Amino acid sequence: MRILLLEADAMIGKSVQLGPKREGHAVDGVRDGVAAALARFVARLRASAVR
Question: Which of 5, 13, 23, 25 has its Cα between 20 and 30 A from that of 39?
Answer without folding.
Answer: 23
